Amino acid sequence: MKSIWQHQTNAHHWTIDRRESLLSMGSGKTRAVIELLRSWQPKRVLVCCPKSVIPVWLKRVTMWGLDSRVLLLNQGSSAKTIKQLIQALPDTTPLIGVVNYESVWRLPLIEGPQWDVLVYDGVHRLKRHSGNTSRWAARMNAKNPTAKKLQLSGTLLARSILSAYRAIESPECQTFRFSWTCYRCQNSYSHTQMTGMILRWLNADGFSEKFNTTTFQVNTTDVIALPEKAHETIDVELSAKETATVGRSDASRSSCTRRRWSGAIRKGRPRTMPGDGDCGPTTTRGSQTMMCGCSEKYFLEGCYD
Predict the structure, then answer these.
(1) Residue ranges of the domains in the chain?
(2) Which of 49, 63, 183, 292 could form a disulfide with 280 if both were Cys (CB 3.0 to 4.6 A apart)?
(3) Rg of the chain on CA atoms, in Å
(4) Ranges of the chain whose pLDDT falls below 70
(5) Residues 110-141: pLDDT tens digits?
(6) For 245, phi and psi rounded to 5 degrees?
């Protein structure tokens, strides 16, 4: 492994003997994958990535001298793509097929052959467990039970911890060993009548522990380009229309009516909302944060991990 950074070497060593793993932000993902393929020497590799990233794979494989054919499965119509794949499969020399998330589920022929390695580049694209591409990935995992699976993502938790389900958990990739329903119930508490509305998050420590069993993470001291972890408060002014949308009437704004806001603010970090002196401060109970007050400003707390 010449001309490879130490953190990429660490990612290689961490992943080499695992059947399923995920490489996160700052780990030099593409280079690490190419070195893994050089070590594993698979015959057939399928890379699924965003359309804009497809040329990058061709360039990187060529640049870093991996002895494999690269077949870009995004050239022309579906019929042309299928024809290209049919012509390429009989050749027994190593093959890397590269396809994009937007169209892969429309190409059932890809599900036919056995693949030795499945690479999901930008796996956060699979955040909707019921989406067409997510269901395609589940089928691919099921039809290739012996294949090594590599997931790459710099923004795995695109919206919440529920976004990670398809990436590192499915009926075929048993990281957490839950179905989607069980996974959601284990990690979130939903509104009784509107199941899509998350009131609070649960089991954060358990999620983190299990997440770390399959995910290689780089320390900020290893990679200069990684942002520092941040914890910030953002003031947001609401217009009259926005205020009405969140259900605040003129009467509630004119009086110090206590209101409750359940949010995904980090556990154990209570905040006091500025406003009238009679308004109550933020209180924290377990992993649920309650905001009480009548300030015209909402305070959102974000964490970059």
Answers:
(1) 6-178+204-216, 231-303
(2) 292
(3) 23
(4) 1-2, 129, 158, 163, 165-179, 191-196, 219-234, 244-305
(5) 888 999 999 999 888 877 767 888 888 888 88
(6) -65, -40
Which pLDDT value is given to residue 154?
Answer: 77
| Bridge partner residues of 235 (DSSP) | 299
Q: Which residues contact 29 (CB under 8 A, 6 or more apart)?
A: 11, 23, 121, 152, 154
CA distance 12 to 121: 16
- Residue 102 to residue 141: CA distance in whole angstroms: 18
CA proximity to 124, closest of 165, 160, 153: 153
Beta strand pairing status for 283-285 and 288-291? Answer: antiparallel
Nearest to 49 by CA among 98, 115, 118, 109: 98
What pLDDT does 124 receive?
A: 82
Surface-to-core class of residue 285, CB atoms within 10 Å of its CB (0-12 exposed, 13-18 middle, 19+ buried): exposed
List C-alpha distances in Å: 234 to 157, 237, 274, 297.
20, 10, 13, 10
Token pair of 231 as six digits? 């914890």
Distance between CA atoms of residues 299 and 10, nearest Å: 39
* Residue type at position 78: S
CA dist., res. 301 & res. 163, Å (int): 19
Partners of 45 in the β-ladder: 96, 117
Instruction: Decide: 283 and 270 in contact? Cβ < 8 Å.
Output: yes
CB-based burial of residue 81 (10 Å sphere; 0-12 exposed, 13-18 middle, 19+ buried)? buried
CATH topology of domain 6-178+204-216: Rossmann fold (3.40.50)
Q: Report if pTM > 0.85.
A: no
